[in-house]
Amino acid sequence: MLNEADENIAQTTLIPTGEITPDVLAEIGMQTHVYARPIQAREILDDLQGQLDVSPETWLYSVHAANGVRVAIVDSREAAFQGAAAYGYQALSVH
Fold first, then answer.
1. S-S: 66 plus which of 16, 18, 29, 87, CB 3.0-4.6 Å?
2. How far apart are CA 95 and CA 57, in angstroms?
3. pLDDT tens digits, one per residue of 8-54
4. Is residue 54 part of a domain?
5. Is 8 exposed, middle or buried (0-12, 13-18, 19+ CB in 10 A)?
6. Residue whose C-alpha is closest to residue 29's, from 59, 61, 60, 69
7. Which of 78, 91, 95, 87 is closest to 35 using CA atoms?
8. Residue 85 — pLDDT band, cuts 50, 70, 90?
9. Residue 65 forms beta bridges with which residues?
10. Is the pTM of this model over 0.70?
11. Residue 65 and residue 71: Cα distance in Å, rounded?
């Protein structure tokens, strides 16, 4: 007899590793995870077209959805993780 956890595993559809594309992998975490990575402001100043008033050498954190779309820029790792939690996401750190 299977316990509840075993039943959940038994009902999971397995995808052979050769079939996991970057798009499939991104979709797995879209509803639950974001990732944060440190960046220097110079990497994004052109994209933000004057919306950010900091020195190009300033270190910031870029927060991304699982599919790579940037969803926020914050000034600290703690802010990235707290912001993610406030919206019901788990943040993962990327170096």
1. 29
2. 18
3. 444 555 556 567 677 766 666 667 889 999 999 999 988 888 888 88
4. yes
5. exposed
6. 69
7. 91
8. very high
9. 34
10. no
11. 7
**Cα–Cα distance measured from residue 52 to residue 55, given in angstroms and rounded to the nearest whole number:** 9
- Whether 86 is in a domain gets the answer yes
3-state secondary structure at position 2 = coil
- Give the number of domains in the chain: 1
Structure tokens at 87: 């919206």
Q: Is residue 15 part of a domain?
A: no
Distances in whole angstroms, Cα of residue 14 to Cα of each of 2, 28, 49, 72, 95? 18, 13, 44, 33, 29
Question: pLDDT class for 6, splitting at 50, 70, 90?
Answer: very low
Query: What DSSP line would sit under 45-71, residue for residue?
Result: HHHHTTS--S-TT-EEEEEEETTS-EE
Convert the pLDDT of each residue in 47-79 to its tens digit.
888 888 889 999 999 999 888 889 999 999 999
Two tokens at 32?
Answer: 């639950």
